[in-house]
Each structure stands twice: as C-alpha cells, then as structure tokens.
Amino acid sequence: MIRTFRPIDALRKLVDYIWVVDFDFLAEDNRDDLIMPLGHVNVIFNYGSAYRLMEQEQITVIPDSVIIGQIKSAKYVQYGSHLTQIGIALTPLGLLQLFQYPGIQLTEQMVPAACVDAGLDKLYRILIGSTDIDDTLYAINHYLLYKLEELDEKDTSRIEEMLAYVEQECEQLSIVRMAHHFRVSVSTLERGFKKDVGLTPKSYGNIVKFRKHVEMKGRRNWLEHRYYDQSHLLKAAHKFAGKTIKQLEKQLPELTLDYLWHGPQ
To answer: Which CATH class is domain 157-262?
Structure first.
C-alpha cells in the first residue's frame, strides 16, 4: 500500500525517491499519521479524501496539489477514509535546480504547487487519469527532466559541495570546521546555506543524522550509541519522530512513521 521508486539516473541528485500511497479505506483508528523531517521538500498530489495538518488547536486543510518545504520537527496529519497520494521527495539541490526556488521561502510552509510552478498543476491533472504505475513514473520523470532542460543552468556546485559535506560529517558536524573548510565566516556559511536549503547547516545535519539511522536497520539497532547521551537521543526521537525509542520499537498505528521505521510489512 506504500511504495517508493527511484527516479531515472539523470534525476538521482535531485529526487531522492517517488512515493505512492493507496488505501481504499482507512478505519478511524488509522487516520492519524506523523510525518518525520527527512531533509526533503515534498511535492504531494492528493487524489483521495481531504486531509489536514493538525497543529495544537489549529487544523489546516492541505491543498490537493501542494509543496511542503523543509520541516524542523515531526508534523501530525489526519487523513480521511480514502487515501491515495503520489509524492516527489526533492533533495535541497532538486528544488534549486528544477524550480530555481530558494529553500528558505518554503521552510515550515505548505504552498499550493502552482505557486512554485504552474506545470505542477498540469502534472497533477495528467496523473489523475493514470491507472498504471509505470505510466505514472514515466510522466513524473518526463516532466522533471523537461524542467531540468528548460531552465537556464544555475551554478549550484557550491551548495552541492556543502550538502555533501554535511551528509559525510553529520555524526560530528562542527560549523566552525565547516566554515574553515569552505573558507568563509560562520555567519556567511549559515546565511547562504539557510537561504538555499531552508535550514541552517546544524539543523539540516541533525535531521540527516537521525534519518540515516532510521533508514539503515543496522544503525537503527545501535541508535543509542550514536548520540552523546541518552538525553540527547530522547530529545532527537521526540523532536523528529514524536515518540520515545521504546514506542518506536513497536508496531505503530501511524502509517508513514511505521513504514519509515520498520519498512514494508
């Protein structure tokens, strides 16, 4: 019911994966979900029941064709009885190269997809009539490849190097060492990185670190050894997954969180 697919080779640096969720009927007990920050900007096309973002006392209906920028902590959503969605998990580099859109303008924001690119609404309508997953993937890859070739090439080599650095050093990321490595001041590094990615290097690095341990079972089993102490681990788990580590070890009622933590059942 939840499936992920890799993009074509030409898009590998720009799209982490394409995901498809399809449930004909969700019981009321399964309609609450929790979305982890994974360092992506998500394009989401919804074809099922309306769904909502649940924030304390505020409830917001999410547009059927939406871009959700970088998030800093776990978000709670509530689905309707019918859940059918197609999503594109863009890397920070993907947002810059495919749409030439600064990440900071989308951080913690839900924006109708057409506000970023009118072609996304056209793609949404194309996918409505698609009943075959191969046709769906072809349409998405073809559209993104067209976007890549359509726009004037933007030099993103610098931020690409910085993103690679954070990915490599996320376990023990030092902003001072990173600034020294790129021969800029700490303030210049943080300002430029946040403008392009939407998060500071430290915030993005913390998300990448937690994500890597979630994605790799071998690391996940040793998660407690990857943090300075138990307190840091508990804070990270609560912030990024909304649960304690003991709660995460059990089967979870939240569809997306359970899939990310335990994989396909």
So the answer is: mainly alpha
Q: What angle do the packed helices 201-215 and 157-169 form, to 10 degrees? A: 60
Alpha helix segments (H runs only) across the chain: 92-99, 113-116, 119-128, 133-150, 157-169, 175-181, 186-197, 201-215, 217-220, 230-241, 245-248, 255-262
The tens digit of pLDDT for each residue in 203-238 reads 999 999 988 877 765 445 555 555 555 677 778 888
Element spanning 58, H or E: strand 58-61
d(Cα 137, Cα 250) in Å, to the nearest integer? 33
Of the candidates 94, 9, 29, 13, the residue with the CA atom closest to the CA atom of residue 255:
29
Coarse DSSP helix, strand, coil percentages of the chain, rounded to the nearest 5 percent: 50, 20, 30
Question: Rounded CA gap, 200 and 94, in Å?
Answer: 18
Q: What are phi and psi of 52, to 5 degrees?
A: -135, 150
pTM of the entire structure? 0.92
Q: How many residues does the chain have?
A: 265
* CA dist., res. 243 & res. 225, Å (int): 18
Contact 175, 201 (CB under 8 A): yes
Structure letter (DSSP) for residue 63? P
34: three-class secondary structure by DSSP: strand
Domain range annotation of the chain:
2-150, 157-262
- What's the pLDDT tens digit per position in 146-201? 999 887 777 899 999 999 999 999 989 999 999 999 999 999 999 999 999 999 99
Nearest to 201 by CA among 214, 188, 211: 188
CATH architecture of 2-150: Sandwich (2.60)
**What CA–CA distance (Å, rounded) separates 204 from 37?**
9
